Amino acid sequence: MNKPFNCRSLYWLKCLSPFVAFIGWMALSLTASAQPSSAPVRSVDYVVAVVNSEPITNQEVQALSLRLQREARTQGKPTNNAESKGLALEQLINEKAQIQQALSSGIVVDDAAINQAESGVANNNQLTVEALRTRLQQDGIGLSVFRDQLRQQLLLTRIREREVESRIRISDSEINQFLNDQIQRQSANASTDVNLAMILIGVPENSSPEQIKQLSDRAQLVVQRARSGEDFASLAASFSTAADRGVSGGAMGLRPLDRYPELFVQATADLPVGGVSGAVRSGAGFHILKVLQRQAPPSTLLVTQTRARHILLRPSAQLSQAQAIAQLAAIRRDILSGRVEFADVAKRISQDGSAPQGGDLGWANPGMFVPEFEQPMNQLRPGQLAEPVVSRFGVHLIEVTDRRDAPMTEAEQRNLARNVLRESKLDEAYASWVQEIRGKAFVEMREPPQ
Q: Do 11-169+425-445 and 191-295 agree at the fold level?
């Protein structure tokens, strides 16, 4: 089976890493907010460092240190209080310098962008914006403080995306070399698909030696007639004891070699297309095989495409997010029990342009849907129906109907190559930029964090 290349680029995730990490931290913080902290924040604050005249306080270091320790624990990593405080201070110094660079470069984050980011945090926590604000208030986080954090994260995202992107250059020769390497690797891991036709001279159980000899002679006769040019399908209809001999002419269909018995693979390994094997003995009898077709691995990259359908409900003043989830959960139960059909419900209630098609979204390449929709979709097997999923567009009921490996167009291949190569250069370019910004900043260390 040809193994498709994963064409999803993580480049945008890396560029957005400050904001993505912030959203992830918010989900973790809201989940764990009811639990008492093991390291209380010191009530008396003081300055631990100054970055270009802007202070970093001890409480800022403590808050980020606790977050880093919590993240480490969720990943099963050992935590060290002193080490996490050192990492927190270094991260805050870099972020202060980068935010200052963003502001001096004229980057502006408007309220609309903050509103969208706030909705993203709410969706990631399976909450409405109103419920998120209530939770923040319960956790002692003021709305203005939270939105200011969002603004800073968006500033960091935009300055990093702009400055780091401009440092990366991808040449046509690099793209060509990457594609050649990927195609060669794919071909090396792929087997040639083969269509074999078979005539089976069955040998019943408990056959006597004389009977086996007669059947062997018949098989040899069929081999001679097939090799002399007689129509193989006609011979199959006349001699084969296989159940489908009259329907397919003995043809078993184009398939990878690993889907044939090893006995068949060995018997036809050296045969050209049109070649006929000798009589091959197995427990079932004598097999005469003809190679009808060989299909070499494709000379283009493959991508795994998914076909899915969904029912979308958009929360409104009349329908809360919780109500939408409950309604779709009930519909899911009705679909699974056979009381209703997915397509019929989609046509009737789905608030999406796909409703007239029964919710069918067509064949989709990786990356065509937003992550909060695509990630649960990718975990489904064909025919499987997910629990209700919340995205930035509303609440979805998703079913995967099919999945296939499809060749990529030349434009898709080159775009893939460019994104993957850019991703491979991103870490180095980002580290270089961070070092440069830090080198330009004036950093004064004051009292160590407690």
A: no
Structure tokens at 228: 């002399």
- Please determine, looking at this structure, whether the domain spanning 11-169+425-445 carries the CATH number 1.10.4030.10: yes
Give all strands of the β-sheet with 389-391 in edge-to-edge order. Answer: 360-364, 302-313, 394-407, 389-391
Q: According to the model, what pLDDT value does residue 117 have?
A: 87
What's the pLDDT tens digit per position in 238-293?
A: 999 987 765 678 898 888 888 899 999 999 999 999 999 999 999 899 999 999 99
Question: Distance between CA atoms of 389 and 328, rounded to whole angstroms?
Answer: 9
Residue 205 has pLDDT above 70, yes or no: yes
Q: What are the residues whose beta carbons fall under 8 Å from the beta carbon of 449, sequence distance 6 or more?
A: 48, 58, 61, 62, 65, 85, 88, 89
- The CATH-assigned architecture of domain 191-295 is Roll (3.10)
**Which fold would CATH assign to domain 302-407?**
Chitinase A; domain 3 (3.10.50)
pLDDT: is 133 or 139 the higher one? 133
Say if residue 127's pLDDT is above 80.
no
Supply the pLDDT for residue 167.
Answer: 85
Listed by start position, the domains of the chain span 11-169+425-445, 191-295, 302-407
Residue 47 β-bridge partners: 57
